[in-house]
Design brief:
- This protein has 189 residues and is of the alpha/beta class.
- It has 9 helices and 5 strands.
- Bound molecules: adenosine monophosphate.
């Protein structure tokens, strides 16, 4: 199973991704977590990404593709993986396809959480109180992240629909309810 979880910021991707990855026994690869780790460790990548992330903008495709290329070559990805927060642009999706071709494999499914904007903003502001994430702390930055999503990422719906592997899931409701919708969808992938 080579899976992607997609959704606007605050859709609950991280929570559901952790569940899917453990159920399928595949690694959960969050590019956002990898970047935050790089920042914490003060690496060159972290230094390049920090200001962009804090402003709620997307990090450059080149940096992200390099990061993913290295990660996907690791042994634990041999039997599949779940990407969370990647791809986020059409160029990243193309790059992922060609990386996977080298391994003679392809994406099995994209699970997309669909949630309204106003719910997203209030969820993120709430999360910002505990997470300590600079990009969750301010309404303007949150709105910028959501607009980055609609400008650059939402197009991936069409991209994966064309490949017949887009699975939309209603992302509104209790965590358990959403998980059971995902379980339903997984049986079709
Ligand atoms: P996330 O944890 O997925 O919400 O990501 C947090 C931030 O990391 C995003 O707002 C972007 O600045 C950056 N980021 C994570 N993944 C990507 C990606 N695939 N492409 C570009 N920027 C990314």
């Amino acid at each position: 199973m080579n899976l992607i979880i997609l959704g606007p910021p605050g859709a609950g991707k991280g929570t559901q991704a952790a569940f899917i990855a453990s159920e399928q026994n595949i690694p959960h690869i969050s590019t956002g977590d990898m970047l935050r780790e790089a920042i914490k460790n003060g690496t060159e990548l972290g230094l390049q990404a920090k200001a962009v992330m804090d402003a709620g903008n997307l990090v450059s495709d080149e940096l992200i593709i390099e990061l993913v290329k290295e990660r996907i070559s690791q042994d634990d990805c041999k039997n599949g993986f779940l990407f969370d927060g990647f791809p986020r642009t059409e160029s990243q999706a193309y790059a992922l396809d060609s990386l996977l071709e080298n391994f003679n494999t392809s994406i099995s499914g994209m699970i997309a959480l669909e949630v309204d904007d106003e719910i997203l903003i209030s969820r993120l502001l709430e999360r910002g109180k505990d997470s300590g994430r600079a990009d969750d702390s301010n309404r303007e930055i949150i709105e910028n992240r959501i607009s980055e999503y609609y400008n650059k990422t939402a197009i991936l719906k069409t991209y994966y629909q064309r490949k017949n592997c887009y699975y939309g899931v209603n992302g509104i409701g209790e965590i358990d309810e959403i998980t059971s919708r995902i379980i339903d969808v997984m049986s079709k992938i």
